[in-house]
Design a protein that fits this description.
144 residues; 0% strand; Cytochrome C; mainly alpha; 5 helices
Length: 144
């Protein structure tokens, strides 16, 4: 009996350590079967939100009824380690956050220009940081 208690305690400790130290699993969906990092999911969600904003603008609905949630763009874990640490990324992300914060003040009349500026900020950053999504992003522009 004295030998069983240390063995059970050791096994419990090892199992607990293994469970606690596992890497977090990536999200996977049928739309994105390869999963992705925290930053990739933030970007995907932002694109979905911008598609909804685009529809709202085209229908004459207030843009600020669909907030763009990108506040943790500076801290989200990227797919490639260190990718968000560059000075260029930090500057563009900070500029983007400031721009998005102004969304609540945009009148219905100025929504289209504001929205297209938002898209341009995305395109400009993606040209230097991660160009792949630009094909999808550029489709968001609203022609006048």
């Amino acid at each position: 009996m004295k030998k069983i208690i240390p063995i059970v305690a050791s096994i419990s400790f090892i199992l607990t350590t293994l469970i606690c130290c596992q890497q977090p699993k990536e999200k996977v969906s049928s739309r994105y079967p390869n999963g992705g990092s925290e930053l990739a999911w933030l970007m995907r969600n932002a694109t979905d939100q911008m598609e909804a904003q685009r529809s709202a603008v085209l229908e004459g609905q207030p843009l600020n009824s669909i907030p763009l949630n990108v506040n943790h763009i500076l801290t989200a874990v990227p797919t490639e380690e260190g990718k968000t640490a560059s000075k260029d990324y930090q500057q563009k992300a900070t500029q983007f956050i400031k721009h998005v914060a102004k969304q609540k003040d945009i009148s219905l009349k100025g929504q289209m220009d504001y929205f297209n500026t938002t898209v341009s900020l995305c395109v400009n950053c993606h040209e230097t940081q991660c160009p792949g999504p630009n094909v999808r992003i550029k489709k968001l522009y609203i022609e006048k």
